[in-house]
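stage 2 :: seqdesign
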C-alpha cells in the first residue's frame, strides 16, 4: 500500500475542491480525493457493466490503492446521528439496535434496468427542514414504517390467532381438554416463546439450517424463506407472550368461578404471575422499549425470573392441594412427575439457566484510535458469523456485538461509541468484562447457506462481516463498506483486514473524503455486477430500509435489521 501525505501547499492550491450540500446536509466533494477508501468516479467509460457514478473494483482492476490521511479541515460536515451504524459522528442518544432479527426482501425473477438517482441541489432552509424531518422520523422508521405484512407480523398474527381460536373453542365448550388444562396452554406458550429466544437452541437450529440447506441444489427461494423465518422468530415470541397472558386470564377466571375447590394461596400466586406477565408485555411494547431500553431489559429479566419461580410454587400448590380435605397432601414427587406442566416448566427453567451457566469474568484488552469506536480483544478463536454478549454488570445489562476472528487464537469486537457503556469503553477502558461463553447465531451466520453474497455495512456495522474476510467461507463474499474517517475512527487494524481481502471483492467509501454516496444504488450496482444471490445490510434503521427496499425493487433478495430482537 502506498501512503501519500499531501503538503500544505497542495492542500491550499488554487484548484480547490468544490462542494455542495445534499438534502441531508452532507458536504459532497465535486472533485474527491482519489483514495481507495473514497470511491472516485471513473474518468473513462470502458464499456463494462459497472455504474458510471461509483468506482467498482471490477471496472478498475489496475487502480492502485493510495491512502490519504483524513484532515479535519477537509472533512465533510455531516449531520449528527445516534446509531452505531451511522455514517457520521454520534450524539448522546443511547440506542443500540439489535442485529439478530432481519427481514428478507422479495425475490423478483425479472431484472430491472439500473438507474442512477440524481443528487438534488437544495437551499439551506430546505436542508434544515429535511434534517429536522429525518430526526423526527427515526422512531417512526423503527416502529411504524416496517410494513403491515412483514414475516415478523405474520408470525405474530398466526401465533395469536391460533391461540384465540383455541380460547374461543374452550370457552364455548367445543374444546374440553383446553378448558380443563387452561393453565397448561399458558405454560405451552411460555415454553414456545422461551425457545424463540434461547441462544443455545437457536445456535443448533441455525447450524442445522446451514448444514441441510447450504447446498447448491437447494432452491434459492427455499433458502431465503428459511432465512426470513429464522430472522423473524421474534414475532412468534411476541405472539406467544400475549397468548400466555390470555390463557392465564381464562384459567384464573375459571378458578374464581370454582373457588370453593381451590385455595386462596393458589389464587394469589396465579394473580401475581399474571401481573408479572402483563408487566413484561407492557415493558416490551416498542415505544417503551425504544425510549427506555434499560427499563425494558431489566423488567423483562427480573419479572420473568420472578414469574418462573412463582410458576414452580403454583405447580406445587395445585398438585398437592386436595379440594375434599381443603389441605395439602403428601406424595408430591410421585404425582408431580406425571404432570405435563412439570416437564414443560422444567424445560423452560433449563433453557433460561443454560446461558447463565457459561457466564465468566474474563480479561480484555481495549483500545481506541478515536472517540468514535473501541476494539475489545479476547482470548480464543470464534467461528465466523457468530455474535457475543458482554457486560460490565451481568445482572443489569448485556450488550451484543459482532465478533471478528480468524478462528485461531483470539477474537475481538468493534463497539461504536453511542451509549453510556460503549462510550465508557473509550474513556475508561476496563481490564475485565463479563461474557457469555456460548456465542449465538444471527443473520451473519446464515451467509454460509448461500453461494454468492453481497454484504453492505455502514459505520461500525462492519464488525459482523469481518470474520468472513479472515476465515475460509463456503460462500463467496463481496463487501461494500461506507464509513466516515475510516483509519482515524476505526484504526489501522480494521482497515488492514479490509485491505488484505481480494481487491476485486471490496468497495470502500470514506465519507470524510468523498461525501455520502447513494448507498442503495451503490449496493444494487455492486450486487448486479458481482452476481450476488442475496444482499445483507447492516446500517441504521433508515439506511437499512432504503437498501432493502431498493434491492427489492431491483429483484434482489435483501435482508436488513427490523425492530424486535
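stage 2 :: out
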Amino acid at each position: 500500500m502506498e501512503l501519500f501525505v499531501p503538503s500544505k501547499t497542495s492542500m491550499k492550491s488554487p484548484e480547490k475542491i468544490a462542494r455542495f450540500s445534499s438534502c441531508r446536509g452532507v458536504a459532497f466533494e465535486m472533485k474527491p480525493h482519489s483514495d481507495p477508501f473514497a470511491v472516485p468516479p471513473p474518468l473513462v467509460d470502458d464499456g463494462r457493466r459497472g455504474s458510471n457514478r461509483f468506482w467498482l473494483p471490477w471496472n478498475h482492476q489496475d487502480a492502485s490503492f493510495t491512502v490519504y490521511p483524513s484532515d479535519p479541515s477537509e472533512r465533510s460536515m455531516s449531520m449528527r446521528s445516534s446509531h452505531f451504524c451511522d455514517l457520521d459522528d454520534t450524539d448522546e442518544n443511547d440506542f443500540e439496535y439489535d442485529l439478530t432479527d432481519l427481514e428478507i426482501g422479495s425475490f423478483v425473477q425479472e431484472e430491472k434496468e439500473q438507474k442512477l438517482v440524481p443528487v438534488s441541489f437544495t437551499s439551506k432552509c430546505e436542508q434544515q427542514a429535511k434534517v429536522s424531518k429525518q430526526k423526527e422520523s427515526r422512531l417512526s422508521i423503527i416502529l411504524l414504517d416496517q410494513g403491515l405484512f412483514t414475516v415478523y407480523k405474520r408470525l405474530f398474527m398466526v401465533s395469536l390467532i391460533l391461540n384465540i381460536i383455541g380460547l374461543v373453542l374452550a370457552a364455548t365448550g367445543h374444546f374440553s381438554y383446553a378448558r380443563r388444562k387452561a393453565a397448561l396452554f399458558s405454560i405451552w406458550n411460555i415454553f414456545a416463546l422461551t425457545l424463540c429466544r434461547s441462544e443455545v437452541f437457536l445456535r443448533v437450529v441455525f447450524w442445522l439450517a446451514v448444514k441441510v440447506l447450504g447446498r447448491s441444489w437447494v432452491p434459492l427461494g427455499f433458502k431465503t424463506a428459511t432465512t426470513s423465518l429464522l430472522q423473524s422468530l421474534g414475532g412468534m415470541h411476541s405472539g406467544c407472550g400475549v397468548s400466555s397472558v390470555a390463557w392465564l386470564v381464562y384459567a384464573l377466571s375459571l378458578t374464581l368461578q370454582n373457588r370453593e375447590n381451590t385455595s386462596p394461596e393458589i389464587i394469589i400466586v396465579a394473580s401475581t404471575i399474571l401481573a408479572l406477565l402483563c408487566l413484561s408485555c407492557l415493558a416490551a411494547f416498542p415505544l417503551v422499549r425504544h425510549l427506555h431500553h434499560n427499563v425494558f431489559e431489566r423488567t423483562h429479566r427480573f419479572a420473568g425470573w420472578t414469574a418462573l419461580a412463582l410458576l414452580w410454587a403454583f405447580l406445587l400448590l395445585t398438585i398437592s392441594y386436595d379440594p375434599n380435605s381443603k389441605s395439602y397432601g403428601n406424595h408430591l414427587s410421585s404425582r408431580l412427575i406425571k404432570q405435563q406442566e412439570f416437564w414443560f416448566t422444567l424445560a423452560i427453567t433449563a433453557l433460561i439457566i443454560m446461558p447463565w451457566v457459561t457466564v465468566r469474568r474474563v480479561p480484555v484488552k481495549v483500545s481506541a484510535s478515536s472517540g468514535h469506536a473501541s476494539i475489545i480483544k479476547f482470548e480464543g478463536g470464534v467461528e465466523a458469523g457468530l455474535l457475543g454478549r458482554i457486560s460490565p454488570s451481568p445482572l443489569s445489562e448485556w450488550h451484543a456485538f459482532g465478533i471478528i476472528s480468524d478462528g485461531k487464537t483470539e477474537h475481538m469486537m468493534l463497539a461504536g461509541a453511542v451509549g453510556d457503556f460503549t462510550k465508557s469503553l473509550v474513556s475508561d477502558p476496563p481490564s475485565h468484562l463479563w461474557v457469555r461463553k456460548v456465542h449465538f447465531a444471527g443473520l451473519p451466520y446464515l451467509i454460509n447457506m448461500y453461494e454468492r453474497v453481497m454484504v453492505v455495512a455502514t459505520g461500525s456495522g462492519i464488525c459482523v462481516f469481518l470474520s468472513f474476510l479472515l476465515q475460509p467461507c463456503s460462500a463467496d463474499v463481496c463487501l461494500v463498506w461506507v464509513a466516515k474517517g475510516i483509519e482515524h475512527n476505526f484504526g489501522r487494524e480494521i482497515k488492514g483486514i479490509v485491505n488484505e481481502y481480494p481487491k476485486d471483492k471490496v468497495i470502500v467509501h470514506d465519507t470524510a473524503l468523498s461525501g455520502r454516496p447513494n448507498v442503495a444504488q451503490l449496493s444494487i450496482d455492486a450486487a448486479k455486477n458481482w452476481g450476488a444471490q442475496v444482499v445483507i445490510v447492516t446500517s441504521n434503521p433508515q439506511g437499512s430500509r432504503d437498501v432493502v427496499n431498493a434491492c427489492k425493487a431491483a429483484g434482489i433478495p435483501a435482508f436488513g435489521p427490523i425492530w424486535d430482537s
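stage 3 :: structure notes
- The CA atoms of residues 46 and 59 lie 8 Å apart.
- The first strand starts at residue 2 and ends at 3.
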